[in-house]
Amino acid sequence: MSQAGTAGPDELALAAEFDTPERAGWQELVAGVLRKSGALPEDFDGAPERLLATKTYDGIEIQPLYTADDETVPAGFPGLAPFVRGGRPEGTGWDIRVLHTSADNRAILADLENGASSVWLRAVPPSSLADALDGVYLDLAPVVLEAGAEYEAAAEALLALPAEKNIPDSEVIGNLGIDPVGLHARTGTAHELAPAAEVAARFAAKHPKLRTIVADGLPYHEAGGSDAQELGAAIAAGVAYLRALTAAGLSVDDAAAQLEFRFAATADQFATIAKLRAARRLWSRVTEVSGGTARGMKQHAVTSPAMLTQRDPWVNMLRTTVACFAAGVGGADAVTVLPFDSAIGLPDAFARRIARNTQAILLEESRLAGVIDPAGGSWYVENLTDALANAAWREFTEIERHGGIEAALDSGFVRDRLAGTWEKRARRLATRKDPITGVSEFPLLAEKPVERPANPSIVDGGLPRHRYAEPFEQLRDRSDAYLAEHGDRPKVFLATLGPLAAHTARAMFASNLFQAGGIEPVNPGAVQDPVAAFAESGATVACLCGSDRSYGEQASQVVAGLREAGAKAVLLAGKPDESYGDVTGFVHIGCDALAVLTGTLDTLGVK
Question: Which domains does the chain have, with CATH numbers?
Fold first, then answer.
């Protein structure tokens, strides 16, 4: 206590009575837990926490604990090179940008009147822009176009609107969205950069606040690419645009000022935060070595289309909330939260409202923008940012070695790189190591699919578009078709063995797994004669669920009985063991759930 009877701030020492914890002590605790679980081999002589480390799709090893000893390169300050901590010196939040894929003026105005601050128009014909934007204050609400090959006509139509309202060219804001590289990636057809750059340079000369070019990373993300691959391809596209714009007569600085970069924000919040921070560092270096001033990057983050589900789409609200949070923390200049029903078709008014309000809550009620770079200084985030920046730079330089992004798209180099990552991702999705809540985990089988009008703005023909949930959802579609034809779901009988407490966990696991494929589990609970119960159920496939002890005592006999009772296939919930008799397959944590479900539906005669 101080003389005045109050505690001085320099005298307060929380938990001073405890010893200072050491890393070695923590390692002993980790080793103890791993030994009890059997995960620590007797001959293991490394740091025990290494067994808890995971790897990203870029091969970056994520440790379970980071400390001040995990040093990394200095992140600098917001608004200054290398711009890791933000492209602007002040924290003013982000632009709430809404996506519209039709010329629905009422919907556009409703978004702008209820919290949105800019509009992103995709595939709206140039002839419809005036109707779509009727009543929009173009000097207050930036408009971003995505007109594909019609970029020049769309730009002319858009820029005629502020002229009609006597808005000076010097005050026109937004982005013309010219992106021949992205169009190449989406359609598989090359589009010349030089004409696009000339159009961009022509409009840029009259409209100093207008951006004209977008370097879009979404095609590479949706093709299954990793964060580093998305960054590397987007940076390569940015470099291609710098070359084309300077060839069209702009300086490096003026050319860089024309670009906006678009990236996916996922529910992996730390990866998203690190990706946006790393992207600014990469672009700062590109502009510096290109002979210009090291510049910040204008970033537009879009909640990942690949992570959205058609089944149980309500969960998408949670995914997009986390992704939006990460985009804001990562320092995005503009964020688009895709409505939760976007994977199904054209979003309805309720879905658009939730998407808008998600951002409003994070900005206004959560005060997320009250601190610049709130993740800065986190030992984990700083290390992940550095590792991701280096991995992305390697991807970028590989693309450059193959002649740049256009040549790499033409030759198939980019496609092959992304396909390799998608193969790894697909394997993790199939085995549920990358779980999808509401689809591959905890599905609601009785819920009817949500229906929406088709979205005509989707363009294909180039890099593939993947949604992580799609393989499981295709199985659910098979089940729905079977239900419509037969009036009942395909079924699997759960043959429970042993005491109730022993088989409950495995029965719940099997029940969850089968429902992910649209298969209804029939669980009679604890029964004296599972074979007789199976025969009475009318099912043709069974799955044994019990304890290891009950398996050793009864499995082979029960399997034989089930086969005699007409079971076309008998699965067993547990690790593979040949001593259990004529078992068709095994379901367990880490099994190929997609293969098990597909095979079971085939056996059940579900087309």
Answer: 95-408 (3.20.20.240), 472-603 (3.40.50.280)
